[in-house]
Design a protein that fits this description.
The chain has 139 residues and is an all-alpha fold. It has one domain. The protein starts with a helix and ends in a 5-residue tail after the last helix. The relative contact order is 0.14. The mean pLDDT is 93. This is DUF4345 domain-containing protein. InterPro entries: DUF4345. It holds the Pfam family DUF4345. It comes from Microvirga aerophila. Keywords: Membrane, Transmembrane, Transmembrane helix.
């Protein structure tokens, strides 16, 4: 019993820390726009960049919302993971079309296509173990 509680706590801490990445990068993009890259872009591209940054900030906040009672937030966690993986696949497609991006973008790709799905699998494991223990599970 203590083992599952320890693992749940570790998952909560890991998700809380990992969610700092999209939240911080998203907030930076909202506040400073395309300044992150130093590239001059049109006002429309700047607006789109800030919108996408706001989505990233929102995704980070939504991941934080899964931390309390994480064993009961399977559906939310999966939807957020799906959004991140779709973004990662889009980034991967861009890599094929336009070439290798910066090291930071490769790091983002790893978070999107490896770290987030692994966290989702871990969350599912914890949810299933809690369901076995207490006889309740989210569909």
């Amino acid at each position: 019993m203590a083992s599952i509680d320890r693992e749940r706590k570790l998952l909560q801490q890991t998700v809380a820390l990992a969610a700092i990445v999209p939240a911080a990068i998203g907030l930076y993009g909202v506040l400073f726009g395309q300044a992150l890259t130093g590239d001059a872009v049109s006002i429309s591209a700047e607006s789109h960049f800030r919108f996408l940054s706001g989505l990233l900030l929102g995704i980070g906040i939504c991941f934080w919302s899964t931390v309390p009672g994480i064993e009961e937030k399977t559906n939310r966690f999966r939807i957020l993971t799906l959004l991140i993986v779709i973004g990662g696949l889009s980034r991967l497609l861009g890599l094929v079309f336009t070439g290798l991006p910066s090291l930071f973008m490769i790091g983002g790709l790893a978070m999107e296509l490896i770290v987030t799905p692994v966290l989702c699998l871990w969350q599912t494991r914890i949810a299933n173990r809690y369901a076995e223990r207490f006889g309740v599970a989210e569909p």
